[in-house]
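Form 7-S
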Amino acid sequence: MLKRFSRNKEKIFCISFQRTGTTSTGQFFKDHGFKVANWNISRKYGWTESWFKGDYETIFNSKDFKKNIVFEDDPWWLLDFYKVLFHRFPKSKFVLLEREPDKWFDSMVSHSNGKSLGNTHRHAIVYNREEEFYLNNLGIENAYTQEIDNLLPLNEEHRQHYKQIYINRNTEIKLFFKLHDQNRIFLGKLEDPEIWQKMGSFF
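Output:
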């Protein structure tokens, strides 16, 4: 299967939201012989920080980006980065997995014990909580860094807000690929018992 993919051009990006099977997706490809860059590699080379600064070429020129084929977790799922990847790598393919929105939010809350996941500044940008972040001066000193500070509360009162962001972004991704190239993305439901067989058939 590896022979069908060029490391330089034919990348596979998992653009599913965090807590939506990103790690399992990476493991699926690893089990089938693909070179996979996971969260640990991304963190080692500061890819998410480079993305946040708009320094995409630092990511694309790094040794581990060039040698791997599959990419899961940060920064690939963040905001509209998939559009950059779509055009920058015209032979690339994408994976978007979804799960039931309430289950997704419950997983978000439980991940960091009722606090925002990861770096607070980045989380605030991704989930439209910038006003709260800036007004309360929460973790300004950690902005544009890898620091995991978990400073925003994340609880039941945020459920609808997060769910709407989750639903809207997934809908926008599906519309984008429908209009530009439906054949470049695998769409799946995390609750589907045959999801991995279907993903295997697609790739």
